[in-house]
Amino acid sequence: MSFLFPNILWGLAATSLPLIIHLISLRQTKTVDFSSIRHIQALENETIRKLKIRQWLLIALRMGIITALVLMISGPILTNDSPWIPSEKESTAIIIIDNSASMSVTRDRHSYLDKVKIDLPNIIAGFNGLVKLQVYQTTPVKQIYNGVIEEGMTINPTIWNIPQAFGRDKLWFIADSVLKSITNPAVNKECYILSDFPTPPPSNFSTEFTDWQFYLLGQEPLVDNVSISNISAISQIKLPNHLLKLNTKIDNMGPIERRNVPVELYLNKERVGQIVSHFQPQRSKEFLFQVYPGKSGVIRGKLIIPRDDYSLDDIQTFELTIPEQITCKVIANSQDETFLLKTVLESISGKDRFLDVELKVMNRIERIYLDETDILILQDPKYLSPSVIESIKRFLGGGGSILWFSGENYAGLTQITKSNLKLPKFIENVQVAGESYFSVDVTDRDNPILQELNLRDVSAALPQVYQYNRIENRVGHKSILSLNNNDPFFIEIPHTGSQIYFFASPLDLRWNDFSMKGILIPLIHRLLILSASNEINTAIVEVGQEKYIKIKKDLINAQWSLLTPSGNKVLLVPDYNREALIIDRIQELGSYEVFAGDESYTAFSSKLSPFEKPSLRAQADEVIPIIGENRAVWINPDKNINEMIINQRQGRALWRTFLIIAIAFMLLESYLSRMRPEAIKLKS
Hints:
Radius of gyration: 41 Å
Number of strands: 36
CATH class of the largest domain: Alpha Beta
Strand content: 25-35%
Largest sheet: 9 strands, mixed
Helix content: 10-25%
């Protein structure tokens, strides 16, 4: 305990006054003997004993009254381990304001961020003396104030215009960077963090900032929040008049049950489905919507649930690409090899000219043009030049896909070629003798390629194989069809945004009877649809992340622009080397539209970071022990901020306590002074 006015403690000497007065009042008395006073003397002795006890009690109470009053006037304070140094000392204060998506949670018609803005003037008004103040927002990281605050000076924080952002914050990383940048050797160092605290600080945080005092202003707990966690297309094969299946996941993140919650699905601004359901606390449900897109191109959709305390996850927009025409390039070693593929592709294309097919005969592929190509079909290529390999890599990186039929030339491809394209390792060529053959089995029955083939017996429709290339899969390769000896026959090789579909045997009757089976045409059809459903442009991107848009070469010099969800139009400059648009740090939540000149080119949506779920918050008992019990104060929203901060800086004032003690002593003294001597009972 310490005192604001320690000189007043000299007044404690006055506590002896009641005792001194009592001693002075004592007088010397003469003893006079009477003849018969035995009974009177016995009564006198008992009464005197009672009076002496009362007198000493009154003296003690009067001394206590004086002591309590002197201590009250001297300003007693219960100090902490890191008290605020008097105001004449220079101080440094850092305020970090979390303006990430989760701070938009609304309680009592005010968001968390609104309440933080209300608290700011109270914090600044409580500064003592000369304070060097820096204020930062977290999303994106930005210093919004840097100056000196003197005692009595007022600042209106509303002029700082702290926006509500939609991205993820990196609270403790920002705090670490900001505090380490402070080189001012101020005696007092305070850091105020106003956040809902998505995560506890890292374990080494306590060792870095031992000379700082932290004030952590938490937020109210979330009450009502039903959120859209996911929406995705189950149907990988997307056609205008083909049934489209969409899977949705809805979470009740709050502690209360929600009943009769409507879940609505919109496609191109038209409501196409609705489900009403109940949601138990902390539980999830999945729903399946089945719709017909009705047209090709970019389909823009939206899933909506009723608004609650956290409205940002009550709407999720999305886009789907329904191919209109597929551009297919076929390269083979001879005309005979192209004939069979041409027949298959013409059968798939039909009268509607669904496919735009280009056939090439190349013994050695020295150069290739893939800018306007959706799918590349390679029939056992003999040689790929380094420039072709780079072109294919760019093609794959831009979302293009490849159907690769390997044959006798596969063994001769260089290891560099196979490594660059993630192709499987060649082991040996395997042939059967006589009329024997290898049968083909389904390895992955849940693969979207094999779904909805409308074949009664898929196994009977699979080919007989007489010769194949035995291969060794790389990590990440997916086996879809395999031979009855468990060797892979048809595999999927994932690439960034695309894939290579690899066959261990070519379309050649000497190798297999694939061309004679009914599964060939529907299988190739689905491979083409899957390959052409290039959704790299329409794929949902997380707020704060980069968005990649592949653009057609003939449009590279167009005037590109971006229409944001808020209606702002932003000019874009293409990356000419990558033939793409690179949109840096998506900041808004919702649906974006990309224009080439005045024509709409594509669209995409953004979504919240999973770290911005307001139910996943760190509590005081997770944060305080890491920073240090003596260096961190957790201030709940229902507490008086100024009082909490002053108590931490200067200690808790005890003058009220001593005033109450003085009043209690006064009342007791008044009671005893009026009490008759005979009312005082003595214990025997």
